[in-house]
Amino acid sequence: MIRPPCLPPLRDPAMSHPHDANRRHWDEVTAIHRDSAFYKVDAFLAGHCTVGPVEREGLSPLLRKNLLHLQCHFGLDTLSLLRLGASRVTGVDISGAAIREASALAEKLKLGAWADFVEADVLDLDLKSRFERIFTSHGAINWLSDIEAWGRVVARHLAQDGVFYMMEAHPFGLAMDLETSGRLYQRFDYFHKDEPMALDGVPDYAVPDYLPKEPGIGWAWTIADIMAALEKAGLRVFEFREYPFAAWEALPGMTAEAGGYYWRRHEGPDLPLLFSLKARHAA
Predict the structure, then answer these.
(1) Which regions are flagged for Pro residues bias (predicted)?
(2) pLDDT digits over 52-100, tens only?
(3) pLDDT tens, 261-270?
């Protein structure tokens, strides 16, 4: 676990911050995720790549690129990207439990010399380094209270000729849920509100019969919010795509298929469940 001296000091634990609840949430679920069938840690240790084919294409070319992975959880994707040819990877996560697990995995695989894991709130991050690839993915943005601060962090760390790539849960899909009758309805806000959403009663995505004791809180960010944050920070979005599949069982009854993505096999219209974009520094 690394906490570089260039990072701001950790906040006084007596002082409350919106992200404190989310730190507790991820500290709680890290061991549950590590041991779950969803994450397939044993297969990963045996060589399985946890990064899907769409993300691999989006990050290409990756060979000999240094990469920053924001909100990396316990490092499976980060280390998979190292195996795929990145010259060095740095994973950042708010959860100390997740960073400890990631560091342990790196050492177990004898990859520690090329992988750094940093415990930090991503909105406070300043590593004093630039990266040729920056990556963020599934279920990350909705845990952040300030999307413009996030955009500045991306721009601060992106090399002048680098590419930022994200593949995220689509905000429209995140707002929806299924009634027991199978009818879709809107459960959460689509547009951003300053007041966070309490995630009480939302099952864990990796272990659906587990309700976290520390559920955390979330914020809705539209695609327009995300693009505006990147552009305000001096980046230019040059590619945008949407997908009718998810990275986990986002709605009841979805099934995992080729590439590890989850599909709805049903009668009726499709939903946008993931989106991806690429950005670089404006000329």
Answers:
(1) 1-11
(2) 999 999 999 999 999 999 999 999 999 999 999 999 999 999 999 999 9
(3) 999 887 677 8
Domains and CATH numbers, the chain: 20-168+218-243+275-281 (3.40.50.150)
* In the predicted structure, residue 4 carries a pLDDT above the cut 90: no
279 Cβ contact partners less than 8 Å away, ≥ 6 residues apart: 154, 163, 164, 230, 235, 236, 237, 238
Angstrom CA distances, 206 to 57, 247, 249, stand at 25, 10, 8
DSSP the chain: -B--TTSPPPPPTTS--TTHHHHHHHHHHHHHHHTSTTT-HHHHHTT---S-HHHHHHH-S-TT-EEEEES-TTSHHHHHHHHTT-SEEEEEES-HHHHHHHHHHHHHTT-GGGEEEEE--GGG---S--EEEEEEESS-GGG-S-HHHHHHHHHHHEEEEEEEEEEEE-HHHHTEEE-TTS-EEE-S-SS--SSPEE-TTPPPSSSTT---SS--EE----HHHHHHHHHHTTEEEEEEEEES-BSS--STT-EE-GGG-EE---SS-----EEEEEEEE--
